[in-house]
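Bench notes, bay 3.
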Amino acid sequence: ERNGEYISSKNKKESISCPSPTPVVSPVQCSAPPEALATKIIDGDTIIVEGGYSVRILGIDADESGYPCYEEAKKRLEELVLNKEVRLEKDLTDIDQYKRCLRYVFLGTQNIALRLVKEGLAIARFYEPDAKYKKEITLAEKTAIENKIGCKWEK
């Protein structure tokens, strides 16, 4: 082989074409629209929107079924967004390992993750590189802890 060419057994020069390396991209991406009706609440940090798209709310972690704040967080999220038009805002990561859309969820201008943390129903949880609202959500959590607000922090 010499400079992208090789000499075949018949002494003919033939070109070798090598594809350029391409980044590995997950074949699945989120197709949920930027605005959609919240049609079902799975738990305190996951909703289903019109079209059947599962959306994991970025910036928080709420209790799963069987844990102390599960019912309260789920019920509050239902009160806030169920059957309402929400805005879905992407950070850097599109989907998680469960193929859920990763989005910040807004009702009007209200950041739902921030609201749930302020009310002590979820904790602040960020995974780099998705940290767009980290400062305000972390501050809200600190305030909720200090003031023993909500089922996560009240004694």
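Next record in the batch:
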Amino acid sequence: LSLAHKGKTASEETKRKLSIVNKNRTRQDLNERFWSKVDIKEEDKCWGWKGSFGHNGYGLFHFRGKTQRSHRVAWILTYGEIPDGLLVLHFCDYRPCNNPKHLWLGTYKDNVDDRNRKDRQCKGSQIEWSKLNETQVIKIREYLELGYSKSSFS
């Protein structure tokens, strides 16, 4: 029977076949495709990303029908699924790194605590929307210690 007799057009049949091919893509093919984009070095070194990047410096990889950060895919391919509510964090703090030994799972709070512990957060005038610079803050604190009220600065 022709496709017309089955109620399908040629393009529908082609899409169906391509869908089957994509679903049958083996884990080995995925591994080869992903790791070919990673600059694998010694075990203890950062493994940089050779593919495309997002505006924030993380590597990007098309995985499971959407664009994902490459270090998350590195985790999944190496260790398995990422539990709900957890992030993949970097020990090395190098966003393009995909070395599984440099990655760990943590909560959003763990990520913030890690950033603060390493003193990597923006402060003062490093924050683009900051209204005061460091000198102004020091001066205001001096006036407050002298007994001036907060309302006198508005």
